[in-house]
Specification:
With about 425 residues, the chain is α+β, with helices and mostly antiparallel strands. The protein has two domains: about 200 residues, Metalloenzyme, LuxS/M16 peptidase-like (Cytochrome Bc1 Complex, Chain A, domain 1), CATH 3.30.830.10; about 200 residues, 2-Layer Sandwich (Cytochrome Bc1 Complex, Chain A, domain 1), CATH 3.30.830.10. The strands form two sheets. It has a six-stranded mixed beta sheet, sandwiched between helices. Strands 7-11-8-10-9 form a five-stranded mixed beta sheet, sandwiched between helices. Helix 9 crosses helix 15 and helix 11 packs parallel to helix 16. The longest helix is centred in the N-terminal third of the chain and has 19 residues. It starts with a strand and ends with a helix.
């Protein structure tokens, strides 16, 4: 089967359109990707990017919230959105004959949402319930806590949802202000993948997105610094829980860094699957946990590498030491066999994602934002295939050069994990 035909058009004002015409599929994914997320909020706007994402669906100058939902479902489509640290996305999956409708609807909710006061009041309640649900989920809290301790006094260290107080403080003018500051042509990519014609897509976008502003305000991002103080690197919360949930964090790499594929391979080898060192040692051999894994997360200017485990209170310190022992073991002796296994997993995942219109629709704007171009699957696979066990060992040693952070939530006794000597002993080379 032939690969997708990828095309890009840069429209006046800075709006970019990118598409992948995929043979053999019978649907289209189309979305608006805004280069603005939780890290772009001012101090008084904590949670605003997420609030705006919710409010975009609550009525426009021509549609009510019910109209939006009904019109999408009338054609059998699917609509959703998400907010992350650095982007907000609105996207649909529809049939090819409904693409004109999809583009018009996206323009309506992104440009012409009205944010009615009564809907703001109602949606505050919804988001506060969402915050409450997250606070009731310890393996959600611990990831937020890890970001807080790893990126102190920085927007990357704040929960994306905001707080009850910050959300309750939002007014209609605040939401309009955030949109005006960030939702403009140079900051937006419209991406589509599936059964489509690029030139027809561009004409539909030109007809519907002309009202989008093209005079951005300057909104530079401040690069975070990794904490080095031993007293500030550990944070725990005591809760009446059965398990202790912990996350160990390391300074990682920016998403576009040339060695990001090596870090991903290291994560797979170390803690990415059932054959990984962490899973085999912590779960299969020692029975310390049910869930354990590692993960890399890259931002535009920085990055993070995390290790998660859920274990008993009595075994928490032992789990930290085991994680350290295994990372040091990778630094000293990652083998060719396990490196080839990690490469195979990453390569297969990348190729499988090319079969999904939704996944391809997400990859296109991500590449444009990070690299300034869409990189071919074959060129990425070539990079991955060149990774060696020596590269993995070197990357593990690089992680160990920076002091790790630790966040944990668990029953009485969890505060014992705040002893910085535990981390220093576990992860010292």
């Amino acid at each position: 089967m032939a690969g997708p035909l990828i095309q890009q058009t840069d429209l006046p004002g800075g709006l970019r359109v990118v598409s992948a015409q995929m043979p053999g599929v019978e649907s289209v994914s189309v979305g608006t990707w805004v280069n603005a997320g939780a890290r772009d909020e001012l101090a008084r706007e904590h949670g605003m990017a997420h609030m705006l994402e919710h409010m975009a669906f609550k009525g426009t100058t021509t549609r009510t919230a019910a109209d939006i939902a009904r019109e999408v479902e009338d054609i059998g489509g699917y609509i959703n959105a998400h907010t992350s640290s650095e982007e907000t996305a609105y996207y649909l999956r529809i049939l090819p004959e409904d693409l004109a409708f999809g583009v018009e609807l996206l323009a309506d909710i992104v440009i012409r949402s009205t944010f009615p006061d009564e809907e703001i009041a109602r949606e505050k309640g919804v988001i506060i319930q969402e915050i409450g649900q997250a606070n009731d989920t310890p393996d959600d809290i611990v990831f937020d806590l890890s970001r807080e301790v790893s990126f102190p006094d920085h927007t990357l260290g704040r929960p994306i949802l905001g707080t009850v107080d910050s959300v309750n403080s939002f007014e209609q003018a605040d939401i309009h202000g955030f949109r005006k500051r960030h939702y403009h042509k140079p900051n937006i990519i419209i991406s589509a993948a599936g059964a489509l014609d690029h030139e027809q897509l561009v004409r539909k976008i030109e007809a519907n997105f002309s009202d989008l502003g093209d005079a951005p305000q300057s909104c530079p991002r401040e690069k975070p610094s990794w904490p080095v103080s031993s007293k500030a690197r550990c944070r725990t919360i005591t809760r009446d829980l059965e398990q202790t949930h912990l996350v160990i964090g390391f300074a990682g790499l920016p998403a576009a860094h040339e060695d990001m594929h090596i870090l991903s391979a290291l994560s797979v080898l170390y803690g990415g699957g059932m054959s990984s060192r962490l899973f085999q040692e912590a779960r299969e051999k020692q029975g310390l946990c049910y869930s354990v894994f590692s993960f890399p997360q890259g931002f535009s200017d920085s990055g993070y590498f995390g290790i998660y485990a859920g274990t008993s209170r009595q075994d928490a310190a032992r789990m930290v030491r085991l994680a350290g022992d295994q990372l040091n073991a990778v630094a000293d002796g990652a083998t060719d066999d396990e490196t080839h296994r990690a490469i195979a997993q990453i390569s297969a995942n990348l190729r499988m994602r090319q079969e999904s219109v939704v996944a391809v629709g997400e990859i296109l704007p991500r590449h444009l934002r990070l690299y300034g171009e869409v990189r071919s699957t074959s060129s990425i696979l070539e990079q991955i295939q060149r990774i060696s066990s020596a590269d993995i060992r070197h990357m593990a040693r690089t992680l160990l050069q920076q002091p790790p952070t630790l966040a944990a939530i668990g029953p009485d006794g969890v505060a014992e994990l705040e002893d910085p000597a535990l981390l220093d002993q576990a992860f010292g080379e």
